[in-house]
């Protein structure tokens, strides 16, 4: 009865908090010039003019026009700034995180209400 209902609520609360804390990440556009001032360890999505897409876990500049992109498998790719079509930086997306947490909370509450409604009369739903 009450213990099962409380454990269901705790499970929903734990699920929502864990989703909110882990969060959603998105790629936000960055100017090429701002890359030189970026902190080490940031993740970048680089689209080259030949439509090649790189996910770089770190970047370094060998000179002002040459970039060394270190990918997640530790391979290095060297290219010039002029080869970049667009670049985006991975950042925490508060809006997406809040929105998904709200929808999951709402969905879990609806499921919990339905389960409680079905189990409250002991017979389940009956028609007629």
Describe the structure.
The chain is of the alpha+beta class. 38% of the residues lie in helices and 32% in strands. The protein has a 6-stranded antiparallel sheet with strand order 1-6-2-3-4-5, covered by helices on one side.
Could you list the spans in which at least 5 consecutive residues all have pLDDT below 50? none
Shape: rod-shaped
**Helicity, as a percent range:** 25-40%
Roughly what is the average pLDDT, rounded to an integer?
A: 80
Distance from first to last alpha carbon: 27 Å
Q: Work out the number of β strands.
A: 6
Structural class: alpha+beta
Strand order of the largest sheet: 1-6-2-3-4-5
Q: How many helices?
A: 2
**Main sheet: strands, sense, barrel:** 6 strands, antiparallel
Compressed to H and E, one letter per element, the order equals HEEEEEEH
Rg, Cα atoms, Å: 24 Å
Strand content is 25-35%
SSE diagram, text form:
Blueprint: H1 2-22, E1 25-29, E2 44-48, E3 53-63, E4 66-71, E5 76-80, E6 84-92, H2 94-120
Antiparallel strand pairs: 1-6, 2-3, 2-6, 3-4, 4-5
Helix pairs in contact: 1-2
